[in-house]
Amino acid sequence: MLTAGVITLGLLGPALAIGASPAAAVPSGVKVDIVKSACVGKSSTGKPTISWVGSGLQVPLKSAYVKTRVQGKLFACFWKYKFSDQDRNYDYWGASVETYWVRTDKKGKASYAALANHQISSNKTARGGIFAGTKDYTSKTSCSRQIDVGVSIGAFSASTPIQACSSYKMDQVRASNTAGYWKMPKIGGFTHVETTYMQKVKQGVKPTFSMSANYPKYGYHWSDGASHWVPTVNLKTIFKKF
């Protein structure tokens, strides 16, 4: 499912799954194309290979803190796509960041802090203030269930899948006429996160999207005030520009 691109695109009404052949099964006069895509940290068998680590149990014993850190592996995929219809004045473009997370710790907890975020920015400004991005999401389902979060712009719609344990949340920090930014404060509670940003531009204009997935690579230090070990927040970045 992840190899072909999970984002679902279409006209308002039933969203359209694009898969590897996005032009297939779309209404007459409408075309949806994946212009470019790439994955980072994904093995030939589809498994994540990039290590991430968050906070642990904040106690005086260093070995206990280290052993209880929430941690695992991830991969990230990036997509640039374009809607086209019979409008001779404007085009609609979008970009998507997808991250897939697994836990490898034995004693860590998903509730421990492990900040991650997605960012998408365009070198073009949305015409007429017409833009859209994936909204805030708080899971109300089990860890195994994936939920599609809808986004719409003009006559077009997208559906971005998110899989998280109950109560874990993704915040839309910002959505503007040039960019979108999302954060997940406790990424250990997530398995799959996809966010998308879309904008309206003048016909023929081809925006360039800068996309990043930032993942936790926390350190730790002793706090005299707290009298125990505490996390040092540090994020690493996976970046693509299409």
Q: In short, what is this structure?
A:
This protein is mainly beta and 242 residues long. It has one helix spanning 62-67, and strands at residues 8-11, 16-17, 31-40, 50-53, 71-84, 90-103, 116-122, 131-133, 137-138, 146-153, 156-164, 169-175, 179-184, 190-202, 209-216, 219-223, 228-232, 235-241.
Strand content: over 45%
DSSP strand tally = 18
Total of domains: 1
The mean pLDDT is 88
Give the termini separation. Answer: 22 Å
Kindly describe this structure:
The chain is mostly beta strands and 242 residues long. The radius of gyration is 19 Å and the shape is elongated. It has one domain. It has one helix spanning 62-67, and strands at 8-11, 16-17, 31-40, 50-53, 71-84, 90-103, 116-122, 131-133, 137-138, 146-153, 156-164, 169-175, 179-184, 190-202, 209-216, 219-223, 228-232, 235-241. The chain is 2% helix and 53% strand. It contains 1 helix and 18 strands. The strands form 3 sheets. Strands 1, 2, 3, 4, 5, 6, 8, 10, 11 and 14 form a 10-stranded antiparallel sheet that branches. It comes from Actinoplanes awajinensis subsp. mycoplanecinus. Keywords: Signal. Residues 1-25 form the signal peptide. This is DUF3455 domain-containing protein.
List keywords for this structure.
242 residues, DUF3455 domain-containing protein, 18 strands, six-stranded antiparallel β-sheet, disordered N terminus, elongated, signal, ten-stranded antiparallel β-sheet, mainly beta
